[in-house]
Amino acid sequence: MSFVDALSYLNNHHDLVTAGTAILAVFISLLSIILAVCNMRMQRTHNRKSILPIAYLSLGDYEQHVFVRLDSQGAGPMIIDELSILNAETRERLGSFLIELMPKGIAWETFFRDIRGRALRPDQEISLISLKGSPDDPCFIAGRDEVRRALSKLIVRIDFHSVYEQRFTYERALDWFARKK
User: Looking at residue 180, what is its pLDDT?
Assistant: First the structure.
């Protein structure tokens, strides 16, 4: 069939050409809707991952400074639901406040009792406990060593969520403090 014959056929069957064009237009429209929905899903997934919060527990064990610090290292805000302190051996829940499990009579630089409901922006931190003193002071040295022993037997678990209500749990053992005995 030549090009002229094909044009003649299409001219003579005008209704068939119109119906074929309409069917093709509906198919292309449906295809574009499907692609738009897939694109929206991928964009939503990307948006959720691009502001993902990441928790990290920083431990400091120096001669003049001992601390446990919660850092928000993700790209989005971290909203804290619960802080749990566990016994490292039995995994039994001991409480929600690290300071309450520490030896009494210590002069703390800073501590937090309750951080539930707090939101940490990216690169923000909260010192759960911080003890500073002079390494020449025998009272400080005794207190620091008691704190190290107490911390070494614990696990800290943080339950938190993102602004999209994605739930996360982060857990870290504090056995790092047992290395100096």
Answer: 66
